[in-house]
Amino acid sequence: MEEKKKELEHRKEVARQGGGEERIARQHDKGKLTARERIHYLMDEDSFKEIGMLVEHRCTEFGMDQFQFPGDGVVTGYGNIDGRLTYIFAQDFTVLGGSLSETHAEKICKIMDLALQNRAPIIGLNDSGGARIQEGVNSLGGYADIFFRNTISSGVIPQISAVMGPCAGGAVYSPALTDFIFMVEKTSYMFVTGPGVVKTVTRENVTAEELGGARAHATKSGVTQFVARDDKHCLDLIKSLLSYLPQSCDDKPHRLRYRESSELRPKLEELMPDSSRKAYDMKKILIEIVDTKSFFEVQEDFAQNLIVGFARVGGQSIGVVANQPRRLAGVLDVKASRKGARFVRFCDCFNIPILVLVDVPGFLPGTDQEWNAIIANGSKLLYAFCESTVPRVTLITRKAYGGAYDVMNSKHIGSDINYAWPTAEVAVMGAKGASEVIFRKEISESDNPEETARLREQDYAAKFANPYRAAARGFIDEVILPEESRSKIISAFSMLRNKRVDRPHKKHGNIPL
Predict the structure, then answer these.
(1) In whole angstroms, how large is the CA radius of gyration of the chain?
(2) Domain with 331 in it
(3) How far is the C-alpha of 400 from the C-alpha of 411, rounded, in Å?
(4) Is residue 513 one of the residues assigned to a domain?
(5) Using one digit for the tens of pLDDT, what is the confidence trace for 40-56?
(6) Residue 220 sits in the same domain as residue 232
(7) Catalytic: 97?
(8) 372 and 271 in one domain?
(9) What end-to-end distance do the CA atoms of the chain give, in Å?
(10) Are 425 and 438 within one domain?
(11) Is position 66 within any domain?
């Protein structure tokens, strides 16, 4: 038996060494942790249980029978993060570049199946050179097996991807199918075709970092939701994100203990400028409303005219969607609509209530927007709100104009409680534009057109640039003072805690993709 024990320990030690000390040193030289180091850092001490440690690939062609590594380039298993069961796989770049083989894919699929069956989040730490070319279609089939499981698990369990190295070709589609993607500056990249192919086909000279680096996807494509400074920062961000999420669609997010005191926030009134044409920072408004240091922004660098993220009010985890007047005056455009729609749908999948802060002058006009399908993309955000059944609370701080008023979680599309500050303007358009349309003839025929236009603008503003017409019709539930906002919102979400909505039976809706 002693010999058997020694053999087992030897095999385990070989597996733990991955591609060997030299390759591990190269990984460290690039500023990257190894797969096992990442898991050890992310999971609670001594909680990780590995599955498939001794799996080896089956390929014998092209000399592959000379290269056998226990584990086959991916570490899979389960453990706890802050005491919560979580499943994980981490690709090991020190083993054949982390390339995906048939057995490598089988290990990932097995852990994905366990996560789905046991209703717990799954985290994928991607660091791979792509499909193992020597295996041909077997490796491609492995990718497809993973994609299928990503899709089946969508909306059932949270799926989180961290791209911590290369991720190219077909490999990119698994992270893209998950709920959130994290990338690391300077060491990770994602693209369907690399710089070499791009140069051959389009004659463009571009580096891997410019084409598919973390910043490119954070600011231009919106593919990644989070950018980290290094591996440890990336793993810390994953822990933070998980703290706001439930285990599955069958649960609600964990509620922290909270003792209510005076919830008045006089500072909120100071943050709103006197003129409706001046910009202000909606994040400052938001931070005053939610629990201290609880706001966790998502996609901070993409479509900055719309803010989305997680926070807590009275200890309860919520999702936040807010217009940002500091960027494009807070208008909705193609990118902001896509960003908001995806976030709202995620919150609805996992029973996370939604708070919407509104200061929106409308949709961004222009040929660029129309030709890039602002109609379809704006409809995505509208569809997401209409479809959601979680508790939804809206606060209009200032402008709520035109179709954008409807789209931003209005009472008409199912919002539960709608508040407005006295500074709110709920109207078809701004007073200046509206008066110029309504009184065009009178202004043009006037002896003093400028003065007539000014007076008619004042008249329109007095009648319509306020929240009281909407409140009179019941579209606004209550006009509140800014300092009352936090107290009212805590109370509203507490009241809505057991909300249930029954919708007509259907296979699924057809969102305007």
Answers:
(1) 26
(2) 267-429+466-495
(3) 13
(4) no
(5) 999 999 999 999 887 77
(6) yes
(7) no
(8) yes
(9) 61
(10) no
(11) no
Q: For residues 38 and 51, is the Cβ–Cβ distance under 8 A?
A: no
The answer, as to whether pTM is greater than 0.85, is yes
Q: Per the residue annotation, which of 105, 218, 322, 404 is the catalytic one?
A: 404
Domain co-membership, 159 together with 222: yes
Verify that 326 and 214 share a domain, yes or no.
Answer: no
- Report helix angle 35-42 to 231-242, nearest 10: 40
Give the confidence band of 59 by pLDDT, cuts at 50, 70, 90.
Answer: low
The catalytically annotated residue of 136, 155, 170, 402 is 170
pLDDT tens per residue across span 157-166:
999 999 999 9
Is 169 a residue of the active site?
yes
Burial group, residue 317, by CB count within 10 angstroms (0-12, 13-18, 19+): buried
359 and 306 in contact (C-beta within 8 Å)?
Answer: no
Domain of 82, CATH number, reads 3.90.226.10
Query: Cβ distance 126 to 164 under 8 Å?
Result: yes
Catalytic residue among 315, 403, 414, 433: 403
d(CA 338, CA 222): 9
Contacts of 504-511 with CB under 8 Å at 24 or more apart are: 509/383, 509/387, 511/380, 511/383, 511/384, 511/387
Is 403 a known active-site residue? yes
Structure tokens at 317: 């985890």
Residue 354 within a domain: yes
Task: Identify residue 508 by its one-letter amino acid code.
Answer: H
Catalytic residue chosen out of the listed positions 52, 169, 213, 314? 169
- Are residues 391 and 321 part of one domain? yes
210 and 296 share one domain = no
User: Of 421, 448, 464, which closes a domain?
Assistant: 464
The structural domain count of the chain equals: 3
Query: Which of 291, 287, 278 lies closest to 307 in space, CA to CA?
Result: 287
Which tokens is 358 given? 């509104």
- On whether both 368 and 335 belong to a single domain, the answer is yes
Catalytic annotation present for 165: no
